Task: structure prediction
Amino acid sequence: MENRSGKAANAISLLSSWSANQLQFLSEKVDQETRSVLLDILRDCHSGEQYLQQMTTKQPFYRQQIAQQTVAQSMVSGQLVAQLLQLLIRISGARTILELGTLTGYSALAMAEVLPDDGRLITCDRIAQANFNMVPWGAKIEFRLGLIGDTLEQLIAEKWQFDFVFLDADKRNYSNYFRTIIDHNLLRSGGILCADNTLFRGEVWQLKPSAIPLAIDEFNRLVAQDDRVEQILLPLRDGLTILYRH
Ligand SMILES: C[S@@+](CC[C@H](N)C(=O)[O-])C[C@H]1O[C@@H](n2cnc3c(N)ncnc32)[C@H](O)[C@@H]1O
Result:
């Protein structure tokens, strides 16, 4: 029994990034033996993520540095999501990109890295904390400081149309941002939009989700019912929705 408790403690420490809600659920709703088995399974999932990282193209040193130097490290989209974004940009031949939510520039620089030389990426945030001068392709990036709602209005007024959009800002406004982007044609027909964290640690399907997972669930349902787009919600990391605009 001691051995299993030790395993459970080890698994809990591995899962320290999981939400308090989920760990509380595990400890309250099931007996100790069941909890231990569940934690074994979750630990396997954790190893699975490590395996995915090992088998996916490595992130370059500059991005490792950005991720390490970001105070809110869990907010950085990370190697797996960045690699998928890069592949989608390459495959689709996107030349203009809009990113909502810059943070320290990890995903913006990853996307700009694979844009053609004449490509353009606009990224926006209410806080300026990214350094785009650290690599040459930072020159393809334009940073817009301010609330995203205001920036979207500016971009509409300036008649921008993007080939690719990465949605990674405040989750409570995902539905509003989606409506604005699609209704005002900020994403062109044939363009791709990716939205990060659309599973929100699995909390979107809990019986009593809190405010953020509820808002994400609303976004997921809005997208699922909109026949202007087709999409897939991938269980990659914290959930990534890839959407194609007809
Ligand atoms: C998850 S982080 C972005 C992470 C980044 N895409 C990456 O992968 O490194 C979300 C960012 O959105 C910004 N943000 C949240 N709500 C915002 C709003 N209403 N207007 C502007 N920026 C906002 C936050 O300041 C934060 O930097």
